[in-house]
Structures are given as structure tokens and as C-alpha cells.
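#struct-queue
[09:14] JT: dropping the first one here, sequence first, then the C-alpha cells:
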Amino acid sequence: MNERDSSEVKSAVRVLELLELLSRAEEPMTLRAIVSELGYPKSSTFNLLATLISRAYVVRIEPESYKIHDAFRNGPGWASGRDAQLIATAQPIMDALRDQEGETVFLGTRRRDGRVRILSKSVSRQAVRFDSDLCGTDPAYCTAMGRVLLASWASHRVDAYLARERLVKITDYTVIDRVQLRKIFDETRRNGFGVSDREAVPGGSGVAAPVRDSSGEVIAALNIATVAPRFDSCKDRLAQAAIRNAAELSYRLGFKGSITSGK
């Protein structure tokens, strides 16, 4: 054993080798396949996977397959702490919501500058669907998640964001008037959900609802996104589904208060 090998921590090496294996795999891997590939005991491999799932680095696909989380394969990077707990708690809800409604589900948070950072997604299985990369940031003024997050922010911070953000008419439907945008944020707060209909992406529409932590603070937004031709017929249903599932996620994060929606 050389000097480098003697300084390695066995458990850390196993975690890294497990992550490296899953990052190379094009499809989810079964526990049996992982054990066979790495040569680890089944029990310890299962425990390592459970830990990585709890930290949101790995996602379990029923009945017993595993894959590295898309956020770490495609960006924006590694997560820990609050974001990791949020992703790990949200993913099963997002996957179930995707299967229930047949549309893509996103989870996003607000950056300090007010823009939206997408943490996780569960992509629709329909042939024609909405999707977006887990990298970069999105403007808040014209997106459903952004409007939810701005609606819960202190007014002086919203004013600062609108003064700082370059309000661009991305599509013919994008609202850029600051007075009208403030009215939209107020409506979002009253209704308990936000809407963006072909404003942020041509042909893309969606709804989002707020996610709260144990203190009641809005820390994220749960978004259901679809293609515009399907949106008109399912908008109300998607809005209620977003509210209901965001409330369930909030409950699992420790929020025990009541959430009322306007419509």
C-alpha cells in the first residue's frame, strides 16, 4: 500500500466511488448491479445509498433502482444543508405530481438578487412536453415561480429587484410595466399561486405555489409547467394541484399552519 492509499478513508472512498459509478450510468442502476460492480457488501451499500438519498445526491426509482440526481449530473452543482433537505423531501412529491398530472414539475428558490434558481425537476413523460436545464438562473418578474417568490418578499426588496433587473419583453405576452407587475404580485399573494402564460418562454406556460419552512417563511416555489396549447384547458386544475402539493411539501418541512388560497 503506497502513502496515498494509507491516507484514504475507506468510507469516503466508497461514497465517492458510488457517486462516480452512478454519474457514469446512463440508466438507473439496481442495488444488485451496484453491489456487483463495486464489490461492496449489500448491507453497507444500501446504507450508503440511503444516506446519499437523504442528502439528495441520489434518487431512488421504484421498486429498487438508483440514479444520481440530475442537479449533480447537469448542474447547477452540489448541494448540502437546507437545499439538500428541501430537494430530498420534495422529489417524491414532485415525481408523484408529475405522474398524476402528466406535466413537468420544477422546484425553485429565490437567490439574493431576486432571480430564480431551479433546484430540481421531474420531467413529463409526454412526447410533447416542457423542460428546462438545471443551470443558470431565471428572471423572476415573468415566471410563475418568480412571481410566487417575489409576492412573499418584503416590498422594499421587490422594489430593489425591479429597479435592478432588466425587464425584457421576451415574448409578445411578457409584462414589463412595473406598476402592472406589482399588481400581478399582489394577485399572486391573494390567490396563493402564480401564473406565467407564454411570458418567459415562447409556447410555455405554468403555475406555481409557495413552499414554506417550519417558521412559515416562503423558501421555495413548486411549479407545474406545460406547453401553451394544453394550458387553457387545465390551468385551474394545475393551480389547485400546485397549491395542494406545495402545502404537503410545506407540512413535511415542518410547517403546521394553515394556507388559504383565494380561488
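[09:21] JT: and here's the second one, same format:
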Amino acid sequence: MNHQTPVFIITGGQGQCKTTFLHLVLGLIVGLNVRVRGVIAPGHVRDGRRSGFTLVDLATGEHEELCSIDPDPRCEAHGRFYFQPVGLAFGRRALAPPDPRGTDLMVIDEVGRFELQGVVWADQLDRLTAHPHPPMIWTVRRRLLDTVVERWNITNPVVVDVGTASAMATADAVMDAVWAWREAQPFSPITAAPVPGDRVAPPALFADAAAGAPRSTPVILRRCYGPEG
């Protein structure tokens, strides 16, 4: 199964909205009872330059600060960013190898130069790709794409370039992969799922907050992508 289950790689140049494209794709499948695990990392900008990232656990909707450019001796320094120990631990828990009976899709935003250097999410990626896994979506900067595919020996990559790709078509392809994964499992899939062959219907993107979330929290952080979100 590991050699047949696709890894969708959303790619583009720096600042080309890979995370935004991923958010749109997830928004298109969230109403289809897809059990999503993993992380999405919305970025922050200060004075026209990337200043840090927040990490969102897609299974729970919880979030933690991951890193910033502000020096902090308590943090791990990688490049110009200082990574919060709490944020790293939070992400590593979210990226633990999933139970295939409870996961249809695994998301990692993003796989980049730090992982290629063996830090941040590198160990989690090694574990995820070493065992049978559900379909996955990674975001990867275009110039690192070939290196990432080779490093993790991705035998069935589906490359989605944000410059030319359609979020609707990508969501449709992801759902096809999810259905193939479910049908290949020895246990029954979750109930109340769409009929195989149904096309993706776009819900209202950037919908209201999950119940109980602070209203001051950005919508992208309030959104929970699990089947109950």
C-alpha cells in the first residue's frame, strides 16, 4: 500500500500562497466526512517580511506558536527563526504515525530545508514514510521539490503547482485517493460518508468558527478540519 498511496505535493515559489491553496483544498473536502490529521502553518508578516508561523492541529483545531524571528534563548534556532519548544512538541504529536482505522488523510505544511537538514519534522516524516500510510498532502517549495521527493523516496508523488492548478480539481483527486485507501482497508470505513464517485461540492470557505473558539482568533486558526469540525 505504501507504494500505491499517493503523496500530493503542493508546490510553488516562496510567497506563492501554498498554505492558502492547501486551506482551499481542505475547505472543499471538509464537509465530506474525511478524517484529517496533521498540521497547517499559517505565516505572519512584519514590515513586508515573513516573521513567524503558527501551527494548527487539523484533527483538533488547537494551535500553538511555532516560531518567530524574535531571538529567544529558550528556543531552537534554525536559520533566522527561533522555534518554540512547546510548538515543536505540539507539532510532533500531531504528526505521529496515524491509526489507519481513524485517518483518511495526513497533511504536513510545510516540508522544507530544515527537514532536509534533519530537524523540525524530519523524524516524523521518516516514520510516516516508513510504514503504510493514508494519502498525504505536503507543501514544498518548488526549488526543493526534487530533493524532498528523493530524500523520502516518494514513489507516487502527485505534484500540484499553485501557479497552474485548480483547488477544485486537486480536492477531487484527493477524494479519489481517500476512497481508494478506504476500500483497501480490511475494516469498514466510517458511516455516513458520501457515495463513491460523488464529485466535490464547494462549501462556504472560511466558515464560522468552531464552537467555543475565541472570536478574536483568526478564522484559519479556528477552523477544525475533522469530520466533526
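[09:30] RK: nice, looked through the second one.
[09:31] RK: Helices lie at 18-29, 85-94, 113-116, 122-130, 145-151, 167-184, 219-222.
[09:31] JT: good to know. Residues 7-41+102-221 form a domain with the Rossmann fold fold (CATH 3.40.50).
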